[in-house]
Amino acid sequence: xxxxxxxxxxxxxxxxxxxxxxxxxxxxxxxxxxxxxxxxxxxxxxxxxxxxxxxxxxxxxxxxxxxxxxxxxxxxxxxxxxxxxxxxxxxxxxxxxxxxxxxxxxxxxxxxxxxxxxxxxxxxxxxxxxxxxxxxxxxxxxxxxxxxxxxxxxxxxxxxxxxxxxxxxxxxxxxxxxxxxxxxxxxxxxxxxxxxxxxxxxxxxxxxxxxxxxxxxxxxxxxxxxxxxxxxxxxxxxxxxxxxxxxxxxxxxxxxxxxxxxxxxxxxxxxxxxxxxxxxxxxxxxxxxxxxxxxxxxxxxxxxxxxxxxxxxxxxxxxxxxxxxxxxxxxxxxxxxxxxxxxxxxxxxxxxxxxxxxxxxxxxxxxxxxxxxxxxxxxxxxxxxxxxxxxxxxxxxxxxxxxxxxxxxxxxxxxxxxxxxxxxxxxxxxxxxxxxxxxxxxxxxxxxxxxxxxxxxxxxxxxxxxxxxxxxxxxxxxxxxxxxxxxxxxxxxxxxxxxxxxxxxxxxxxxxxxxxxxxxxxxxxxxxxxxxxxxxxxxxxxxxxxxxxxxxxxxxxxxxxxxxxxxxxxxxxxxxxxxxxxxxxxxxxxxxxxxxxxxxxxxxxxxxxxxxxxxxxxxxxxxxxxxxxxxxxxxxxxxxxxxxxxxxxxxxxxxxxxxxxxxxxxxxxxxxxxxxxxxxxxxxxxxxxxxxxxxxxxxxxxxxxxxxxxxxxxxxxxxxxxxxxxxxxxxxxxxxxxxxxxxxxxxxxxxxxxxxxxxxxxxxx
Length: 765
Known about the structure:
Strand content: 15-25%
Helix content: 25-40%
Largest sheet: 11 strands, mixed
InterPro entries: PGBD
Organism: Cymbomonas tetramitiformis
Distance between the termini: 111 Å
Protein name: PiggyBac transposable element-derived protein domain-containing protein
Number of strands: 26
Region (Disordered): 58-177
Pfam families: DDE_Tnp_1_7
Low-confidence stretches: 1-14, 51-115, 130-159, 163-200, 711-727
Mean pLDDT: 75
């Protein structure tokens, strides 16, 4: 008999051979029975076992037809439980106030929560007694005892009855400890009685516009009854995956059609920045640039200069990477490539997300073309860190590992953890005009957009608490999807308050069903179920059942009498709907953890190795990191030897294959060509001055708020503090006219002023 079954009706569940207090769960005990069965029980459940055994062996003195003694029993409690711990406060006072001395602190910990609940129930019972001479029956008494008028509970300032410290009047047939034990047992059995809690007693309760049928479950899954079956995801190249390199698998999850456009924009931007007419970014150079970034990701250093050093200084201990000698990309060329990087756009000036929207759309289309997700999907959020300025739709979610930055809503496949769809959060005001919002509201509409390619397929979607609600369940059914979601705050029309009250009373689980009609005219059955673990988990589902599902293994620490901690494990029973949710809800989180380098063997993430001041590059890094992680899960799933591959090894091999990509040889880019692209150690970059600071153009003298960061690379971050204002090193120049063009051409401001002075003299003459 395991935890979760209705074992409260069993009078003799077995003798307890050992019990240990569980440290990390409140009021939980690891109980070992003589047959070797280990259960993780609540303190009240364990106390009920002990009291039930005591009641079966002790016959009340004044009762007719008392309980018979258990055959072979001696009428006492188990030898590891003290009789004194079972006595009430009144019995201790009758014995002269002698306090019991339990064998261990565990007994005291066990008694403490039970006695507080018993005193609370007794106080509530006394407060509910009539105050004007009314009589109330007492357990074990054949007559009624009149309660005096002066025993009514006085009221507090807030009007609530105050708890009285005096014990209730005893019956004349009370026989001390035995009768008190009977009274306590009746109260305990009254709390634990499933019939009193409504199990089997169906009732209805209306929450807003939804009427719930309480204490009812579901034994047939609506999704399976409609003929839908479970199936796994399919990769379009899984038949030839064994012959593909890691880089080729990565390219299948990357929108390669955009690479040529990116290279064209990088070339134009470099020419405009004054890198020379020979400046050209090819596909091979593009992927070698990404290979350098992944190399830095796999081999973190405290300073970027270390990657390009050729000699080690005296006393400087580090790995001599020497990337310039190996791959002919020096620090100057690397920084030029970082500055020139730009994504293709739709050229919609009114759209603040135009710099990244086209690439995001192409990315979703590419992943959808290579991956057919299985029968199960997961909808959740992902975050990318951003501490700069200018990002539209910036989110602050304090519970996230990276609380400030870009929030992306993502959809993943259950069986592979591969993210198949991404949507960036664009801010509250802009999201009001998104698809499905007018009909269903913000959160259900997001869930429908993230699963739009699979509408009408009967797939089962696991929803995070940010998306799950009664409205989302009905909206999903209207679009051919079934959901299992965690309800926390969006509990309108959901019987969450009743479910939580039942769970707190019974300390296990509660359920209810409702027949509702959707906006599309369909009639469906909603299932609401709560399971109690450390905290109650409330689920809303249009699929799955309330049958017992796969048990969950719980690991916990146990405090021994010696004070040492011992790790134990126990198997906990759970409903089928909870078993499915706990198995699938963290698929997106697992993908995010791998992308951000957590416990994977690769230290750091793209946000650390590719630092930027451009928010759209951070969004690009997020999509590229998801492509990287998706490729890893693809190889792990379908490659014959993929199960032995760890994420750190995957990234190191991917970085090497990017550095030696096939386009380098096809384009005949040799070392001399790459050295020619190095150019001078000057980068012309027009930036805004901080705050409201204004300066004067060094050429025309007009007031400007721009400067060109064109100092030598080793001094580009140098600043000068003067008059409490940070003066950044560089050339102050205006972006209008030919001032910036002359500056890029190398014409000094002094020569420009001399030429202008000659022109003015000539005009006057």
